[in-house]
Give the backbone structure.
Amino acid sequence: MSAPASGFSAPRSPKAPVDWAPWMVLISTIALSFKGISAKYAYDAGMGVGMVLILRFVLAAPFFWVGERLLGAGRPRLPLGWAEIRPCILAGVLFSVATYSDFSSVQLIGAGLSRVILFTYPAVILIIGAFSRRTWPARRQMLAFAITYLGLLIIIVPSVGLVAVDVMLEGVAMSLLSSVTYGSFLVYSQSLTGRLGSARFTAISNTVTMLMIVPFALAMGGDLTIPNTTALIWAVVIATVCTVLPFFLLFEGIRRWGAEKTGLMTLSGPALTIAMAWVLLDETLTPLQLIGFAVVMAGVGALQGVDRPLLRLLRRGRRAEA
């Protein structure tokens, strides 16, 4: 005998909460990808690397602390002591080196090529992970390293005749230095965002970076003249759209998702920058360099590994675009 029908339907199981971490990292990657383009426009408007760096962090610092206050309102705060500030200083040092090397490489070899080399930093993240676990990377990973750097050679060699050899070598070295220090910075930041909160860590570490970059840029000399209106507008864009916004999103994504998965999502960065450079700056890569770019992306992607939830996320995105 069947149960009498009732006027009420069975309650539906609640939907799983949306994981916003991938979208935070993706939006951050898009904003950061525009940094090289904005820097190129600022250089073309007559501003030097030193002044771009100074304005980037001087203009960004107040926004970081306003964001930290707004996002941290009503939440318990860990008292700040030397034990908390000291690791933020080290993080700021790493990011300062990565930033200066990055902006210098853009000026030397262009936005597209420098992005391709910089985005080998997920490999750095995995190497650090292997050392921390005291295990050698798997053979597949070591092969992927070889593939990645073969791709770099394919990209670099055709550019040797277009740029002076010493300039090319300096630009490549700067990009690689930025890759190593930025990858180290992201790994080191992961534990700090858990302890301090992503907004607080972002504000402190970027303030440390400002305190280091400003005197360093002044000591380096170069073109430190007051920028014109056009250059100043691009400096504001770099400080807000390409620094404050993506950093809050990036470190919250790292806190929720981890450094390795975050590194995987940011692999879209070089493609985005190259596309922007092609549309906005008339920068191009030769067919051979495009092959090298594909080899680099394949190698770094193999190093990272792709987990099934992320694959499902990317597939859903492709279906939505269709």
